């Protein structure tokens, strides 16, 4: 075995060490990112399992030009829900909610809906709705087909 064979082997060995030295941090970072994503997914699933709410009532009060729909729901789960991430559909149509439309236990400026608290949404509605649907940030939804009239 001559010097050229030993030199070539040394060069290949050094090349392999450099390649492994460059690849290891990339693989480690990818593994860390994957583990973080799995932990985030597990946290979201735990929040979903612990989230629940009940639709207490839905009432419609007719007015001269347009009526008022009031939807009241209670957070019956053990997870805090986001008020801005809660959506209302009236007869299948998305209704954009502003901060003035929602109240948590009577307070207008709340953005979280704690367990045991009541969320009240009041919006203008042209006609008596046949169906309403309330959807929370975790994808939980309740559909109500009996909207009471307020005299």
UniProtKB/TrEMBL annotation:
One of its GO terms (biological process) is archaeal or bacterial-type flagellum-dependent cell motility. Keywords: Cell projection, Cilium, Flagellum. InterPro entries: Flagellin_arc-type. It comes from the Archaea. Pfam families: Flagellin_arch-type (PF01917). GO terms for molecular function: structural molecule activity. This is Flagellin. It comes from Natronolimnohabitans innermongolicus JCM 12255.
